C-alpha cells in the first residue's frame, strides 16, 4: 500500500461513517475486494487516530467499525458480505466522492 495517510486535523472533522464509506470507495477504485479485515486495515492506515485501539495507538480497533457498518447497511449506503466483498450503493458513492474531494483538496469542513 502506498503512503496515503490524510491529515488528522482534516479527517477528525469527518464522521466515522463517512470515513468508512471513503475506505470502501478506495477499494472499488483500485479493483480490490473489500473484506472486513482489509477494511479495518485500510481505515487504520488512512485514519490512524480515528481507528486506533484506545490506549495503544499503534494498533487498529476493529470494534470501531462494527456498529457503523451495521448502520451503513441499514441505511442502504453499503451492501455485500463482510467476509467476501462490501460495495457502495449509489448514495454511498456520492458521499464517498464528496469526502474524496474534501480529503484530497485538504479543505476543512
Short overview:
By secondary structure, this protein is an alpha+beta fold. Helices cover 57% and strands 14% of the residues. The protein has helices at residues 8-11, 16-30, 36-46, 48-51, 63-74, 90-105; strands at 52-53, 56-60, 78-81, 85-88.
The largest beta-sheet arranges its strands as: 1-2
The class by helix and strand makeup works out as: alpha+beta
- What's the CATH first level? Mainly Alpha
CATH architectural type: Orthogonal Bundle
Distance between the termini: 27 Å
Structural notes for this entry:
The chain is an alpha+beta fold and 109 residues long. It has one domain (8-103): Arc Repressor Mutant, subunit A (Orthogonal Bundle). Helix content is 57%, strand content 14%. It has 6 helices and 4 strands, in the order H-H-H-H-E-E-H-E-E-H. It has helices spanning 8-11, 16-30, 36-46, 48-51, 63-74, 90-105; strands at residues 52-53, 56-60, 78-81, 85-88. The strands form 2 sheets. Strands 1-2 form a two-stranded antiparallel sheet. A hairpin with a 2-residue loop joins strand 1 and strand 2. Helix 2 crosses helix 6 (90-105). The radius of gyration is 13 Å and the shape is globular. The model has no long low-confidence stretch (mean pLDDT 91).
Amino acid at each position: 500500500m502506498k503512503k496515503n495517510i490524510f491529515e488528522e486535523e482534516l479527517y477528525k472533522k469527518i464522521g466515522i461513517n463517512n470515513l468508512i464509506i471513503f475506505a470502501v470507495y478506495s477499494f472499488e477504485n483500485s479493483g480490490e475486494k473489500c473484506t472486513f479485515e482489509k477494511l479495518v486495515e485500510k481505515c487504520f492506515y488512512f485514519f490512524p487516530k480515528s481507528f486506533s485501539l484506545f490506549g495503544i495507538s499503534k494498533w487498529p480497533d476493529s470494534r470501531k467499525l462494527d456498529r457503523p457498518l451495521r448502520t451503513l447497511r441499514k441505511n442502504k449506503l453499503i451492501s455485500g458480505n463482510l467476509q467476501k466483498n462490501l460495495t457502495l450503493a449509489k448514495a454511498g458513492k456520492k458521499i464517498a466522492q464528496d469526502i474524496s474531494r474534501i480529503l484530497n483538496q485538504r479543505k476543512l469542513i
